[in-house]
Amino acid sequence: MVYHPKSEFLRVMFERGFVADCTDYQALDEALIKGVVPAYIGYDATAASLHVGHLMNIMVLRWLQKTGHKPITLMGGGTTKVGDPSFRSDERPLLTPEKIDENIAGMGRVFAKYLSYGDGPTDAIMLNNAEWLDNLNYLEFLRDIGRHFSVNRMLSFESVKSRLDREQSLSFLEFNYMILQAYDFLELNRRYGCVLQMGGSDQWGNIVNGVDLTRRVIDQQIWGLTTPLLTTSDGRKMGKSANGAVWLNDQMLSPYEFWQFWRNTTDADVGRFLKIFTELPVEECDRLAALQGSEINEAKVILANLATALLHGEEAAKAAEATAREAFSGVSIIDPDIIEKVKTARGNGPLTLDMLHEIIGLSLPSFVVSLDDVNEGIPVLKLFVQTGLAASSKDAKRLFQEGGAKMNDEVLSDAGLRLSAADLAQPVKLTAGKKRHALVVLG
Questions:
Q1: What is the pTM of this model?
Q2: 43 among annotated binding-site residues
Q3: Is 292 annotated as a binding residue?
């Protein structure tokens, strides 16, 4: 649908490519013009960190706040105990309450980088749906809420239908998820005046359920807005790299690796990703996207710098770019100063990864090898896997065969090479291809 919004928030959403569908564009647009709109996105606590796949909707919440409205980050302390079956082929593993709380704490650190939390009218608030879900009376819930849901209609939603069509099991526990998510919207409207739920297009059915339930139970007009499923130009799901998920917590993925993820964006995706993952003006995004040849690489650096600065801060972005430029230019990053500091630290006892990060910073992926590991020599293939430069030994062997494996900027040809304690007496830089590097140090 082509819609020309009047509100600043919806205008930004359309201009930057955030809109997939909406339950009522015009009514939502009018509400956004009239005053502050509280809106939420829900996040189940299935991992210790959010990843790049979540970042599009985090940016939606950021723009919501920047345009004068109130973001609500709803943590699924209750719904995580059930598990969202949407478009999954199997049931999610059930987590303990302690693990769920731990995951929520890790995810919360990411939101604080993008949103301003507080008590003001447009300050973000973080809630946990366990607050109202954990103490539900089952029979009362079935009578008061369950009666508004048609099983026939629930079975027709694509997220459920696709699972059943493949004759894959769908437990009764999972089947309840869409009712609980709909109930979240009802409770958020009652308690906080929330009138808009946003989420990925895969959540459309769940969002519509919440809109319908709230209308039926308390006769309130509320809306749903979804973002498109984001894939790269070659069809891959956004948020995955060769080595797995691109995590947003720096304890799980260094700022340098995060920067490199964006620097490695394909040419065709640069303009689109600039609009979605940065706050660069749309006209400048379009100009950078039109660059050709080697010039497009500078656009990728801008994308990497801006995306990294939003999450990790400008200093981390500058450090990552400096490390990358030094490595790309062929200059060894194993300078005498680092070598001397490593020797001094090792002289005071075993060298740990935390000590190494203090010496070189978090800008470059690092790995500490213990003396026990090198008694008989450690296979260099193993190091490529342990540092994350290769996904497996098979992947590492392919690097060697293609001439993409290097040690201290020298091409490695012997995939059977083992490194001794003497070889690792000084820090060693391993390189995969032209853009990915890691530091290996003897502990």
A1: 0.74
A2: no
A3: no
